């Protein structure tokens, strides 16, 4: 079985869903070119699926939350002869409530966990052995690490978005860079339009792009571009058809994909957002989508 045999076509959109099809959990696929859609995987350990990422060989990684049957888990989905096999890469240990996953240039896997070590943490996981290493962790109740999304910059820097902590005077929501060697944290941008950042991605120009579930007037959510050096925030789009946007990805041409589980007719929806104009257009919506939790686009090559 060669690597190319199990790759989905470039541009295919993959969507993790925590409770699709009778609350089984699954991963949907959609080809924007042909309109073909279906399940890449369903059931098994996928109930409670959260983040999604792609390895260099085309395998799909999905995190699973402990609040569903089983513990916090990192799964690998391998497509062979038209069927998808689920294997556990790593489970439990420091994995408590993993919400996002990304792959580093050397193939190591990063997982953002809201409640790991009690204060939240970013973990590095060996893709072969499943060994977990805590890279960065919250220090105290007044300095928690509340990662809700993460991505990797071209130079290897790790970017996360943090929710405000559950303390009487919580720190503002913020965008943070984590040193991939020391785990040291540096705040890139804080407060401003950020109210409830839930996911983050790097665009083709190296900008940090954040989707926020409650930003702007009316708490309808939006997309915010953050300068990776100055931290300056620029609104890409806000309100419109959004209700509570949840996850974000970038297509090959730079167009943004944003999921929203309560948009329009209160059905889960995937929007295309023009990064220059902020125009929102529906790409795909409705059943069998139930609770979309992550989105990823299959790259070329």
TrEMBL record:
- Give the superkingdom in one word: Bacteria
Q: What SUPFAM superfamilies does UniProt report for this protein, alphabetically?
A: YWTD domain
Record PANTHER family: E3 UBIQUITIN-PROTEIN LIGASE NHLRC1-RELATED (PTHR24104), PROTEIN LIN-41 (PTHR24104:SF25)
Q: Output this protein's name.
A: NHL repeat containing protein
Species: Streptomyces wedmorensis
Q: Upper taxonomic classification of the species? A: Bacteria, Bacillati, Actinomycetota, Actinomycetes, Kitasatosporales
């Amino acid at each position: 079985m060669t690597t190319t045999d199990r790759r989905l076509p470039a541009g295919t959109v993959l969507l993790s869903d925590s409770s699709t099809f009778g609350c089984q959990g699954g991963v949907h696929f959609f080809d924007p070119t042909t309109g073909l859609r279906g399940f890449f995987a369903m059931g098994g350990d996928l109930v409670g699926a959260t983040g999604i990422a792609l390895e260099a060989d085309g395998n799909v990684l999905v995190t699973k939350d402990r609040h569903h049957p089983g513990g916090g888990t990192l799964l690998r989905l391998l497509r062979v002869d038209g069927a998808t096999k689920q294997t556990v890469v790593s489970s439990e240990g420091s994995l408590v409530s993993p919400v996002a996953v990304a792959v580093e240039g050397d193939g190591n896997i990063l997982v953002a966990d809201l409640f790991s070590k009690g204060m939240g943490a970013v973990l590095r996981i060996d893709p072969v052995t499943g060994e977990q290493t805590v890279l960065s962790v919250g220090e105290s109740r007044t300095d928690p690490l509340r990662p809700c999304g993460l991505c990797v910059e071209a130079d290897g820097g790790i970017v996360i978005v943090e929710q405000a902590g559950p303390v009487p005077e919580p720190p503002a929501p913020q965008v943070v860079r984590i040193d991939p060697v020391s785990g040291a944290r540096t705040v890139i941008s804080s407060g401003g339009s950020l109210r409830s950042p839930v996911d983050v991605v790097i665009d083709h120009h190296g900008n940090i792009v954040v989707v926020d579930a409650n930003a702007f007037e009316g708490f309808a959510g939006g997309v915010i571009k953050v300068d990776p050096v100055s931290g300056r925030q620029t609104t890409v789009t806000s309100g419109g058809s959004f209700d509570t946007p949840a996850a974000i990805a970038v297509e090959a041409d730079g167009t943004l994909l944003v999921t929203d589980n309560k948009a329009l007719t209160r059905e889960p929806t995937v929007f295309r957002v023009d990064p220059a104009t902020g125009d929102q257009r529906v790409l795909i919506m409705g059943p069998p989508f139930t609770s979309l939790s992550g989105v990823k686009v299959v790259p070329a090559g």
